[in-house]
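Working notes for the structural subgroup meeting. M.R. asked for a predicted model of this chain before we commit to crystallization trials. I am recording the input and output together here so anyone reviewing the notebook later can reproduce the run.

Input as submitted:
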Amino acid sequence: MSLAAPSLLRRLTLSTVLGLGSVTAASVTAVQAQPQVFVNELLASNSTVVAAPDFGDFADWIELYNAEPDAVDLSGYTLTDDLEEPDRWQIPDGTIIPAGGFLLIWADDEDTGLHTDFKLSAGGEQVGLYAPDGTAVDTLTYGEQTTDISLGRSPDGGQSFQLFETPTPGA
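Returned structure, recorded in token form:
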């Protein structure tokens, strides 16, 4: 599996000595663009859709989608249900989301592996994905949710959200 850094924007700054035309100092500043990883779908009231394999319960879940052409390492990224607290839960080191792939994270207050230390509110709230430097990668605010009907982007990674009577976790 190839792990590539997200696209880099480069700015080259050169200082020259006037009259001599020689370069006396050069610095390259790489500004990393955030990867195209989206909070793609969520289910805030799961009673029959899919059980968490680790615990067997029907827990809330958040699906992330990687629109990049390469895998993205999510080590150090965080998820939250409160945009005022962006570092609420850290995605475990070594978590890789494949190119064009999905990652299902359980929002069940278990705080182990891919299980967050918070649950989603069926009454509505916020979900945010943040880079290790604290920059928002993707955030959304959602309203009241109906049991076993998910809210997701259509198409995957798109701008529009819709309700899915048949949720599509991991797909």
